[in-house]
Protein backbone atom coordinates (compact mmCIF):
# COMPACT_ATOMS: atom_id res chain seq x y z
CA UNK A 1 0.00 0.00 0.00
CA UNK A 2 1.27 3.45 -0.87
CA UNK A 3 1.89 6.40 1.38
CA UNK A 4 -1.17 8.68 1.80
CA UNK A 5 -1.58 12.11 3.45
CA UNK A 6 -4.97 12.56 5.11
CA UNK A 7 -5.72 16.28 5.45
CA UNK A 8 -8.35 18.30 7.31
CA UNK A 9 -8.86 22.06 7.44
CA UNK A 10 -10.79 24.26 9.82
CA UNK A 11 -11.80 27.53 8.18
CA UNK A 12 -13.77 30.74 8.65
CA UNK A 13 -16.38 29.69 6.06
CA UNK A 14 -17.09 27.38 3.15
CA UNK A 15 -15.59 29.09 0.10
CA UNK A 16 -11.98 30.31 0.13
CA UNK A 17 -11.54 34.04 -0.50
CA UNK A 18 -9.71 37.02 0.95
CA UNK A 19 -12.24 37.06 3.82
CA UNK A 20 -12.69 33.27 4.18
CA UNK A 21 -9.46 31.53 5.06
CA UNK A 22 -8.05 28.47 6.77
CA UNK A 23 -7.54 28.66 10.53
CA UNK A 24 -6.08 25.20 11.19
CA UNK A 25 -4.67 22.28 9.25
CA UNK A 26 -4.04 18.73 10.40
CA UNK A 27 -2.31 16.02 8.38
CA UNK A 28 -1.55 12.40 9.16
CA UNK A 29 0.70 10.32 6.94
CA UNK A 30 -0.40 6.71 6.51
CA UNK A 31 1.75 3.82 5.34
CA UNK A 32 0.29 0.32 5.22
CA UNK A 33 -2.79 1.79 6.95
CA UNK A 34 -0.79 2.97 9.97
CA UNK A 35 -0.06 6.52 11.08
CA UNK A 36 3.67 7.12 10.64
CA UNK A 37 3.79 10.91 11.00
CA UNK A 38 1.56 13.88 11.74
CA UNK A 39 1.45 17.66 11.43
CA UNK A 40 -1.03 20.08 13.01
CA UNK A 41 -1.04 23.84 13.38
CA UNK A 42 -3.35 26.77 13.84
CA UNK A 43 -2.66 29.50 11.30
CA UNK A 44 -3.19 33.24 11.42
CA UNK A 45 -4.48 34.40 8.05
CA UNK A 46 -5.40 37.85 9.32
CA UNK A 47 -9.17 37.33 9.05
CA UNK A 48 -11.79 37.43 11.77
CA UNK A 49 -13.43 34.20 12.96
CA UNK A 50 -17.23 34.64 13.01
CA UNK A 51 -18.97 33.74 16.30
CA UNK A 52 -20.78 30.82 14.63
CA UNK A 53 -17.50 29.32 13.40
CA UNK A 54 -15.88 29.81 16.81
CA UNK A 55 -18.76 27.87 18.40
CA UNK A 56 -18.51 25.16 15.72
CA UNK A 57 -14.72 24.68 15.78
CA UNK A 58 -13.64 26.01 19.16
CA UNK A 59 -11.04 28.18 17.40
CA UNK A 60 -11.17 31.77 18.64
CA UNK A 61 -9.75 35.04 17.37
CA UNK A 62 -7.61 35.14 20.53
CA UNK A 63 -6.09 31.75 19.68
CA UNK A 64 -5.23 32.87 16.16
CA UNK A 65 -3.53 36.09 17.32
CA UNK A 66 -0.66 34.00 18.66
CA UNK A 67 -0.71 31.42 15.83
CA UNK A 68 2.00 31.38 13.15
CA UNK A 69 1.23 33.17 9.87
CA UNK A 70 -0.73 31.13 7.32
CA UNK A 71 2.11 31.50 4.82
CA UNK A 72 4.61 29.89 7.20
CA UNK A 73 2.24 27.05 8.07
CA UNK A 74 1.40 26.30 4.44
CA UNK A 75 5.09 26.29 3.49
CA UNK A 76 5.79 23.84 6.32
CA UNK A 77 2.87 21.55 5.55
CA UNK A 78 3.63 21.59 1.82
CA UNK A 79 7.17 20.41 2.60
CA UNK A 80 5.79 17.86 5.07
CA UNK A 81 3.39 16.34 2.52
CA UNK A 82 5.69 16.62 -0.50
CA UNK A 83 4.38 14.54 -3.41
CA UNK A 84 2.30 12.23 -1.21
CA UNK A 85 -1.26 11.80 -2.57
CA UNK A 86 -3.92 13.63 -0.53
CA UNK A 87 -7.06 12.12 0.96
CA UNK A 88 -9.82 13.94 2.85
CA UNK A 89 -13.26 13.11 4.22
CA UNK A 90 -14.79 16.18 2.57
CA UNK A 91 -12.32 16.20 -0.31
CA UNK A 92 -13.88 18.95 -2.46
CA UNK A 93 -13.89 21.36 0.50
CA UNK A 94 -10.38 20.56 1.73
CA UNK A 95 -8.89 20.56 -1.79
CA UNK A 96 -10.29 24.06 -2.43
CA UNK A 97 -8.60 25.40 0.70
CA UNK A 98 -5.37 23.46 0.02
CA UNK A 99 -5.16 24.96 -3.48
CA UNK A 100 -6.19 28.46 -2.37
CA UNK A 101 -3.77 28.69 0.56
CA UNK A 102 -0.87 27.27 -1.46
CA UNK A 103 -1.75 29.59 -4.34
CA UNK A 104 -1.37 32.57 -2.04
CA UNK A 105 2.26 31.60 -1.44
CA UNK A 106 2.85 30.68 -5.10
CA UNK A 107 3.24 26.92 -4.47
UniProtKB/TrEMBL annotation:
<protein>
    <submittedName>
        <fullName>DNA polymerase III subunit epsilon</fullName>
    </submittedName>
</protein>
<feature type="domain" description="Exonuclease">
    <location>
        <begin position="6"/>
        <end position="105"/>
    </location>
</feature>
<dbReference type="Pfam" id="PF00929">
    <property type="entry name" value="RNase_T"/>
</dbReference>
<keyword id="KW-0269">Exonuclease</keyword>
<dbReference type="GO" id="GO:0003676">
    <property type="term" value="F:nucleic acid binding"/>
</dbReference>
<dbReference type="InterPro" id="IPR036397">
    <property type="entry name" value="RNaseH_sf"/>
</dbReference>
<dbReference type="GO" id="GO:0005829">
    <property type="term" value="C:cytosol"/>
</dbReference>
<dbReference type="GO" id="GO:0008408">
    <property type="term" value="F:3'-5' exonuclease activity"/>
</dbReference>
<dbReference type="GO" id="GO:0045004">
    <property type="term" value="P:DNA replication proofreading"/>
</dbReference>
<dbReference type="InterPro" id="IPR013520">
    <property type="entry name" value="Ribonucl_H"/>
</dbReference>
<dbReference type="InterPro" id="IPR012337">
    <property type="entry name" value="RNaseH-like_sf"/>
</dbReference>
<keyword id="KW-0378">Hydrolase</keyword>
<keyword id="KW-0540">Nuclease</keyword>
